Amino acid sequence: MKSEITAERNKVESLFCNIIYILTVIGLFFVNRDPNEEIWIISVRMISFAYILILILLLLSLRLHFSHKELIIIMFLFVVSVLISFAGSRGILHFALLAIYMGVAFFVVKRKASLNKRMVNISLLLIFISFVIQLSTFRFHARPVLSIIDPNFSGFYIFLVFLLCRKMNMKMMSYVFLFMGALTLSRNFYLAVFVFFLFTHMKKLCFFFLKLKFVNVVIFSHVALLIMGFYFVLTFDDQIYYDQTLSRIAQVEDRANFYRFSANIFFWHDLLNSPFDSFYGREVEEYAENVFAVVPHNVLFKTIMSYGLFVGIVYLLCMFYLFKLNYSVMNMPYIISLLMYFLFLGAGAVNLDLVFIFIILSINSKDVLHFNRRKYVLK
Length: 379
What we know:
Layout lengths: L1 H28 L9 H22 L7 H20 L4 H20 L5 H21 E3 L2 E3 L5 H17 L3 H13 L3 H15 L1 H10 L1 H22 L19 H19 L10 H7 L8 H9 L1 H17 L6 H13 L6 H12 L6 E3 L4 E3 L1
Antiparallel strand pairs: 1-2, 3-4
Helix pairs in contact: 1-2, 1-4, 1-5, 1-16, 2-4, 3-4, 3-14, 4-14, 4-16, 6-7, 6-8, 6-16, 8-15, 10-11, 13-14
């Protein structure tokens, strides 16, 4: 009797995981994300509302698998976010969504993201069609991009799908998306792919980073980033040529990198000199007007800039806790390659990006969930 209840419970939880996957995929890959279109904002709010319903249902059925400490952390993040929104000038939704997405990410990690492989196969085919249409339609200085109209973010979202294919043991499909990402000519994409295959084929490197521990990897990488930034800014200037052709892949000394490193340094200068102004977070327009024309291209810095010092740090600690739970030799190529985007682009820390990343990391390649006509079975 107990085994039947457990099996039924697992089936319900797997269903919720698959619903979360479908909602996330729709929001990330099928909605027009042109900054000038409102459909993206409307879609995110609708998906957020669906996430809330899922969390409520899970709470009522006591199927969250959260420890008391984890529940307190999520509730604390939610309450503090709402209070900060009242004290500052930002809307409640801007902050409260942080706790909602973090709660969904916690559930996905705890449930180990059991996905129906047939559903994933169909979704990947539809994503492929969506990407072909977008890359054929949208351009950024003659470079094919997704509807977000940014080569680096386009490369990032294509890279996420590439990682999903690898985690689901679909290597041939992953090479298709690898080719698509290469078309964006995003150096961050090429760097992430290089790091992924480096760690995939060098297991000793994975074990070394495992012993190093995730928190130390984050600290060392950010110290190196700031040192690199100071060197770059002191050595070069903003008059460097910015190439949009294929030769840009091997070019490091250009205007884009100059502004990218400068943005990180100006962020720290503003934080240390005006910590109170950074407490509630800043709008992008306000930051560009008062601090620097370019927002920080780094997950830590960008999150603190957007959500404030206190909420940003609490949120980042929750995120790093989830990464720590997934920090393993199997996940090392995924985590370190994603770290390249966290360091140099500032993508993946919030909203649907966060949920999709932890869906990928929580999948066990050896236990991909299949679906047959009668029941879920592990194969």
